[in-house]
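Model the whole thing, not chain by chain.
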Amino acid sequence: MKTIETCLTPEMLKYHDLSNKTVVVIDIFRATSCIVTALAHGVVSIIPVATVEEAKVLQSEGYLTAAERHGSKVEGFDLDNSPFSYLNPALKDKTIGLTTSNGTQAIHAAQEAGAYQVLIGSFLNISALENYLTQKAEGICLLCAGWKGKVNLEDSFFAGAMLERFLGNFTSINDDCALAYATYLAGKDNPLRFLESSAHYHRLETLGNHADITFCLQQGIYHNVPILQGNTLVNV
Amino acid sequence: MKTIETCLTPEMLKYHDLSNKTVVVIDIFRATSCIVTALAHGVVSIIPVATVEEAKVLQSEGYLTAAERHGSKVEGFDLDNSPFSYLNPALKDKTIGLTTSNGTQAIHAAQEAGAYQVLIGSFLNISALENYLTQKAEGICLLCAGWKGKVNLEDSFFAGAMLERFLGNFTSINDDCALAYATYLAGKDNPLRFLESSAHYHRLETLGNHADITFCLQQGIYHNVPILQGNTLVNV
């Protein structure tokens, strides 16, 4: 039987056996939503790196680079962590180096933990993800990026939205799934209102990023599934 | 304003500042339910220890001792981790040494993390806890013991039940609260049925402990609030 499990933060990844598992990295506000948007709009690949220093090296090698820390763009880089920045036609066929507070860390954590495959998940590509996983995955791990090691509401909520689509065909094998699914049920009728209570929503609002939040909550507007090949994210 | 936060497993305690916080340790299946039951029925104090070796030392010093690992009693000890074992009138006025897989570890983790106060929570004493905390606590941390580091459903569910009683008077300060509360809402109408899907429920059922589960889900039948004084649990 196919299995599905949820990991509420990368801190808990050590309790998951990822061999033969397809890991879906989730950082809906905003890294994974940006990655999906960029690759949907013609960016050819994204190199996710864990540190600002690594992003600087990529910049020195001539790559366009994006860096975010604490919700804001890091001084000196080309792009920030807003999905609107990736709608720019000038980015077509480019490769972008990217580092963010949580999402790119989670991608690396999944890779280091020996994941069979690493995909990028967001509401923007949720239907494409569902189709791909239903056809290709034997075991799924929904990895919430969280916020600096902590559990967060929005990524747990998204994991629950994925679970609703899979619980008929995949067996849930850990209790994190029940928490994520309950969280989705509690908020699905009005996601924006529900997520207003989350810590990161407040952080983004304070930084003036309300439009990013509503953008990231659009369901299934893109049809690409980003996958990690070596150290680079490309569309499947 | 008074605050309330939830910590879904002791692994995440490092993200909580516990100075001035009253920590409620939660391991409803079954350690904290046993502790409440024992102290409600005349046991005078309980010494929670992290390891089986420490429990053996207490036994060699003449204490009655209880030890549980993987859901079962450890060979050679006097008592197991079933609340029914603590209804015995012969235990009146005794002090008991106790080690369990998760609950006693969480008690020590809270103490080591610098908690201002450590209380013991379960459905059995939920109303007494509510009264005590409403009157005495300035900040509350609901610490779920989980299962060997992982998040579990039943302790998260109980944290949600506590949150329902406090969200009017205390401000929730982390996203774990939203997950726990959603979990409670999803299962409150039929806790037994809801918790059937949890990993530990299956473990206890397999070991023949169904009666323990229904016992532990009784709400407010005891009126004591166990508190850690030095290294010993006594009633407030």
